[in-house]
Model the fold of this input.
Amino acid sequence: MTGMRIERLDLIAYGAFDGHSLHDLGAPGVHLVHGPNEAGKSTALSALDQLLYGIDHNSPYAFLHRARTRLGARLSTADGVALEIVRRKKRKDALVDGDGTPIGQDALAPFLGGIDRDTFTTEFALNSDELRRGGKLLSSGEGDMAQMLAAARSGMRLKAVLDTIESRQDRLFRVRGRTNPRINVALGRLKELRLTAREATLQPGQYRGAEQAAAEAGANLVAAEKELKRVQVLREDKQRLLGILPLLDEQRDLEDQIAEITARGPSAPDDIREQLGDLLREQSNHHAVCSKNAPLVEDIDQRLATTGDDGSPLPNAAAIERLSKEITAILDAVTQRDESSGKAARTRNEAESRLRTVHPRATLTDEHLYRLPAALRTTGQNLRDEGRKRHEALDRARDTVERHREKSERLGKELSSLPASEDVTPLKNAYIAVPHDLPDKLTSTQATEKKCAQRFQQTLNRLDLPELPPEDVLNLRLPELGRVTEAEAGHRELDKGHSERAAELDQTQRRLATYRRKLARLVTGDAPPTRDDLRAHRALRDDLITRFRDDPDAEAPLQEAVRRADTTVDLMLQHAEEVNKRAETEREIAELESAVPELQAAVEEAHTDLTQARQSWDALWDGFPAPSPEPGRGTGVLDAVDRLKTEAQDLQDVRIDLREQRDRLQAHTARLKDLLRLGDAPPSTDAAVLFTEVLSTAGARLDEHDAAAAKRAVAQRDLDNAEAELADAEAAETRAAKDVEEHGEQWRRFLGDAGLPADRDFDTALTELNVLFQVAGEVDAATAIEDALRQAEKRISDFEGLLRETLRSCGRSVPTSTIGWHQAIETLERDLQRQRDDDRTRQGLLDHKSNLDKQIEDASHELKEIESRLQDFRARLGVSTIAEMEDAVGRARDLREKSTALANIQRALPSGAELARLRGHGTSADKLTAELVELDQRISELEETRDRWLEQRTTRRDAFARLNGGEDAARVTADIAATCAELAEDAEEFLRLEAARVALLACMDEYRNSDQEPVLAQASEMFAKLSLGRYTGLELSDEERPSIRAKSSTGTLPPTALSEGTRDQLYLALRLATLERHAAAGNALPIAVDDIFMTFDEQRTEAALHVLDTMADRFQIIVFTHHEHVIRSAAKQLPKDHCHVHHLPRSQPG
Done:
C-alpha cells in the first residue's frame, strides 16, 4: 500500500523562491498553504509534479535560477518507507538522494504506485479555472453521466477531446442544419458541376439568336437606366421645391409686415430702445422712495417728542451693578458670621483635652510638644514595618540553621555506608577501542557478498557461460571491440542488401501477378461503336433540333436523340481508353517478366556473401567459452562480459573485506575475554554471536562501575552542598541578629525626636504620634475660623457703606436692617434697566430718521438726472410724451425681429438662378405632392424594368457563353474530378473521426458501467455535505444515456437549474469521489487544490474543508489559498490537530 505523503517540500531554487521550505506536511488533517497575491502560490503548486516527475527542460519557473533550479523533499509511505530526494534541472542524473548520490526515477516507484505525471496533474490537482469549467460543462446540459464521470476522472481531458472530434466532424459534414460544412458544400458543388457539364455538352444551332438576345437585353438595360436617372432628377427638383414652399410664403409675409411697421411712424435707435425701459423703471422707483419715506420721518419726529429723559439711576450704574453682584455673598457672610462666632473656642478646648491624653500636664501654649515635622509620621511607619520584617527574618534564619544541621548529619552517615570503587581503566580503554558497528558491518558485508555472488552467477547464466571462478573470468580473452563493430557493420550491410534484393524480387512478382489479372479484366468480347454509328446519331439529333423550332412536340425525341449521341460518344471514348490501358498493361508485363530472373540471381549472390560473413564472424569468437553470439549482439556481449568482470572484481573485493572484518572481530573478542577473565566458549559458538555477548558483558561491567562511582560522587556532592548551606544559614542568622539590634537603636532615636517615652512599642508610639498631629490640625482650624470672621466683618461693613451712599444718591430711603437690602437693590436694578431701554429706543429712532432723510435726498437727485435724459430722447425722436417714445421702441423691436427672420429665410433658400428654375415646376403644394406620388410610382416601375433587363442580360450572356462547346466541358470535367478527390479525402477523415468518437464514447460508457454506482454513491454523500443539506444527494435520469440530477426535498433538478456555486460543488463532489478508487488500490497520492472556494460562501467553504478532512486519513490534503477567511474558517471548524497552516513569504512573486 503506497499512501505517499510529502512530509517536507524544499523550494531550494525554484521560481522566485530561494531556500524556502514547507515543513510538517505529513501530519494528519488538512494543510493550508497561505500567501497573498504574488506570493508564489501557483509556483509552489507546480513544484509538486515537477518534483515527482522531473523539471521540464523549458520550465517557466527556471527564469531566475536557470541551471541551478532544484527542488527537494522528504517522502514517506504508509508502510513506513522514507526517502530524502533532490530534483535538479538536468538531462542526466537529475534525481539524487539526500547524500547527493544519483538515483533513477525507478527509486520513486514504491511511492508513486504506478501513477504517471498525466494522471497526477489531471486527477490529483484541481484549480479554480478547472472547477469552473466543470461547472460550465454541467450547466451546458451537454454532459451525460458517462461524460461527467470521465471528465471528473480525467480532469476534463476526455470531454475536451470529444468536443474537438465532434467540432471537426461538424466542420466536415452535417446531415441537417448548417449547409456550409466542407462535404455538404462539395456535394452541392458537384451537383452543380454535373448539371453544368450536361449543359456544356449541348451544341444548339441558336448561337446567333442567343447573341442577338444578349445584345438586345443590354440595349434595353441602358435605355431603362437612362430614363430612370431622368425621372429621379425630376423628382429631386420637385421634392426640393415642395420643401421650400413654406419658406417662400413666410418670406412674403415678413416683407409685408416690415413695410407696415415702417409706415406707422419712426423707430427708436438701438441706444434709446435699450435704455428707455430701464430709465422709466428707475424714475418710478425713485418717486416711490420719496412718497414712502416722507410720512415715516414725520412719525419719528412725533415719537421723539414724547420720549422722556429721567437719568437719575444712570450715574450710579457701576455701584448698582456691584451691589447686585455681591448681595448674595454678603448675605451668606452675615449668616456664616452668626454661626461661627463660638466655634473657634470649642475647637481649642477639644484640642487641649486630646493633647493631655499624651502629655497629661501640657497646654496649647506648649507648641513644641505637638508642632512636629510631617515626615516624622512616615519615618515611624517605615521603622515599624522594617522592624517587623527584621524580627521575622531572624526567626526564619534560626529555623533554617536547625534544618541544615540535621540534613548535614544525615548525609554524612549515608556516605560512610557506601563501598569503595575499583580501577577499570584497561577494560574501559579496550571497550572504547571496539567499533560497535563491527557486527553490523560484518552482517552487511556478508549480505553484500551474497548479492554480488548472485549477480555474478546470473550474469554467467545470461551469457550461457559454464561455471567459472571470479579469477578465471578476469582472465577471459575476447575479440577487440573495433573488430567486432566492423564485422557487425559488414554483416548488417550484407543482411540489408539481401533483404532489399528479396523484397524487390517479391514486389516485382506481386506487381507481375497484379498486371496479369488487370489484363484479363481488360480483354472483353464487346464490339465498340463505330464512327458511322456516331455520325448517324448526330445527324438525327441535328435534324430534330431543326424541327424543334417549328414543332415544339418534338422535344421528347430530341432529348432521346441527344442522349443516344452522348452515350455513343461515351462508349467510344471508353473503348479507346481500354485499348490504351491494355497496351500499357502488356508493356508493363513484358518489362517485369524480363526483370524477375535478374533479381533472382542477385538474391542468390547476396545469400552467398552473407554465409561467408557468418563464418568470419564465428572465427572472431574462438576461445570464448560459449557459442558465438548472433551478429548484432556482439557489442552487447562484450558489454555484458565487461559487467561480468566488474562483478567478479567486486566479488573478490567484498570477500577480502569479509575476511578482514572477521579477523578484527576475533581479536577484539579475545582482548575483552582476557580483561573480563572469562572462560573459553564452546567451539560451535558463532564468532559474531560470541563477540556480541562479550561486548555486552564488558558494557554491563563498566555500567555497574560507573553507576557505583556516580552514586558515591552524588553522595559526596550532596554532603558538601549541605555543609556549605549550613555555613550560609549560620552566617545569615548572625546578619539577621545584627540587623535587629541596629533597628532598635534607630527606633529609640525616633521616640526621642517625637518626644515620646523610650518604652513605647511600634503601634502605641504611632497612635500617640497621630494624636499629636490631630491636635496641631485642630489648633490651625480654630485660628483659620477666627481669621475668616474678621474678614467677613470688614466685607459686610464696606458693603453697607456703599449701599447707603448709592440709595441716597438715587433719592431712595435706606433700609433699617439687612433684611431689606436685597429688595432695595432689586428696585434699583429695574429702574436702571428701564432707563437704559429708553435711551436705546431714542437713539434707534434718530438713526432711522437720518437714514430716511438720506434716501429722500438721493432719490431727488436721481430724478433730476433721469428727467434730463428723457428730455434728450424726446428731442431726438421728435415726440413729446413718454407713450410716444414707448411706441417708437416697440416698432424698433418688431422691425428688428422681422428683419432677422427674413435674413434667416433668405439664407435657407437657393441662389437666384436655381430658385427661379425650381419655381418653374409650379408652386402649389397639393399639386407637387400628387406629382411626387406619380414620380415615385414611375421610379419603382423603372427600377423593376431595369432589374428585369439586368437579369435578362446576365442570363442571356451566360447562356451565350456556354454555347462555346468542348472547352467548357473539359474544364467542368476537370472540376468534377478535383471535387470528387476532395470529397474522398474529407470522407476518409470524417470516417476516422467517427471511429475515434465511437471508441471514446465506448470508453466513457465502460467507465460509467464499472464505476458509476460507487462513484455516484460517494459523490451523493459529499454533495449533501457541501450543499449543507439543501440537496440530499444525486441520482440518474431514466434516459438511454442517463444524465446526473440533484435531489432535494421538493424533487430533482438538472444542473442547469442550479446556481453557479452549487454546480461547482457538484463537480467537486464528482471529482473527489473518483479519487477513492486510488485509495482502494493503495496508490493514493497527495491531493492539491488551488483557490477552489471562489464561488463558495463562508458556510459552504467550511463544509468543503470538513469533506477534505474526512479524506485526510487516506490522502494527503494540501489547500493553496490567498484568502484569509479560508484560514479563519479552517481554524474555527477543523480539530486543532487537523488544521495546519503554512505561510509563504510575502515578498515572493507568484
About this structure: The chain has a mean pLDDT of 79. The radius of gyration is 64 Å.
